[in-house]
Amino acid sequence: MKRILPLLIIISFTALNTAAQYYNGQVRIDSLDRSFLFQVTDATPRLHAHRFYTWFKSGRIHTTEGGYYGKLLHGYYKVVDKERRLLEEGRFKQGRRVSAWRTWHENGRLKTITRKRFWDGAWRIDAYAPDGQRIKKGVEKNNQFTGRQVEMVKDSAVVVLYKKGIRQPAAKK
Predict the structure, then answer these.
(1) Largest distance between two CA atoms of the chain
(2) 96-135 residue pLDDT tens
(3) Which residues form the signal peptide (predicted)?
(4) pLDDT per residue as tens digits for the range 118-127
(5) Domain boundary residue, one of 81, 104, 127
(6) pLDDT at 152
(7) Which domain, by its residues, includes 87?
(8) Which of 76, 104, 132 is the last residue of a domain?
């Protein structure tokens, strides 16, 4: 009995923190600070060993490489905070991120826009500070950033160039 009581407390606590509702291919997961709204599919795509798939099972969203166990995310995907402000928005196609993805700062200003390039699968990234200033622009492929990033040094902004994830030396004048 002493072992069962803590287990019941943990289960009831986690049940209070998140709740998933599923209806006709649409899912809503509510937690204390945010809600996830998305669509799922029963389709079974041809899997690729080195691609990541996002799927829903047992009230949670999972991401795995080369496979899945549950229902693949397919269609719209939105994350809102407890005040119902939009934090993230995008689309999935058979468990894979597609099209443009946007995130927002809590003040409602755009935080990032990422768009997938169809010819090489790289993500074009534009990132913004809470005041709306662009702080990053470039392309990310295989988790390596190529492009210009604004870095704050003391009280001034410095533009830094990256190629395949490696910071490039400043150009000589």
Answers:
(1) 76
(2) 999 899 999 999 999 999 998 878 888 899 999 999 988 8
(3) 1-19
(4) 788 888 999 9
(5) 104
(6) 67
(7) 20-104
(8) 104
